[in-house]
Amino acid sequence: MGKLDGKVAVITGGSTGLALAGAKLFVDEGAHVFITGRRQDALDDAVRHIGSNVTAVQGDAADLDDLDRLYDTVRQDKGSIDVLWASAGIGEQAMLGEITEEQFDNTFSLNARGTLFTVQKALPLFNDGGSIIMTGSNASLRGFPGWSVYAGSKAVQQAWARVWVAELKDRRIRVNVLTPGQVATAKQQELFDEETKRQFESLIPRGEMGSPDEIATTALFLASDDSSYVNGIELVADGGTTVM
Asked: pLDDT for 147-187, tens place per residue?
């Protein structure tokens, strides 16, 4: 018996990286998963990787029309949602003094505004007793030079989780933030050169990056009844980086 048998999950940004690993694990644990992503080719690859019980809906989580189309698909296909993992996000390094309006607007449009409306637009479909997860970042917990815009766009989620727990208590919908540290993904390979990766690894007590599968198992905990008494927290999965 799987931990998510019969559940319906929605994962934004689920075509790559840690969210893709989570989508695969959720399906393995019995859920039907809807994933989104901006690129159709990446979504097609993700569906092949996951194998079954997955529906891909191409779209941008920063685009409210795309979110409406996502939830219309969920409504027509399954009728309701038990788990939402709002994981779509972007990050770009820029030092104070070099930050552009475009960088700020693009980052906050997806990471902050997009996350809020991903959650809000899901609520009419949400079953009572469900679980909402937002992907944070330990960049919002430490002072990594060049990442202030990204850190700020992620820090809002911690405040939202606390407020939304109070607003959703009568429906027993839990809201938590899953905050990864450095995770070895294709996107990270694109953003970081070898020297930067070594610098980040030096901050992790075990000396190596996390894996998408390690974040996926943490997300499964928050999605399932294993975390039925966990509500309103920020669960940091960064190998101890933020306590060093």
From this structure: 999 999 999 999 999 999 999 999 999 999 999 988 988 77
Amino acid at 82: D
Rounded to two decimals, the pTM is: 0.95
pLDDT, tens digit, 9 for 90 and up, residues 65-91? 999 999 999 999 999 999 999 999 999
Beta strands 234-237 and 174-180: pairing type?
parallel
What does the pLDDT look like over 37-56, one tens digit per residue?
Answer: 999 999 999 999 999 999 99
CA distance 27 to 31: 5
Give me 24's structure tokens. 């695969």
How far apart, in whole angstroms, are the C-alpha atoms of residue 103 and residue 105? Answer: 6
Residue 46, both tokens: 């993700």
DSSP conformation letters of 13-70: TTTSHHHHHHHHHHHHTT-EEEEEES-HHHHHHHHHHH-SSEEEEE--TT-HHHHHHH
Cα 176 to the center of its chain, rounded Å: 11
* Number of residues in the chain: 244
Please tell me which residue in 150, 160, 164, 221 is annotated as part of the active site. Answer: 150
- The CATH superfamily assigned to 8-182+212-237 is NAD(P)-binding Rossmann-like Domain (3.40.50.720)
Q: 71 catalytic, yes or no?
A: no
Judged by DSSP in three states, 190 sits in helix
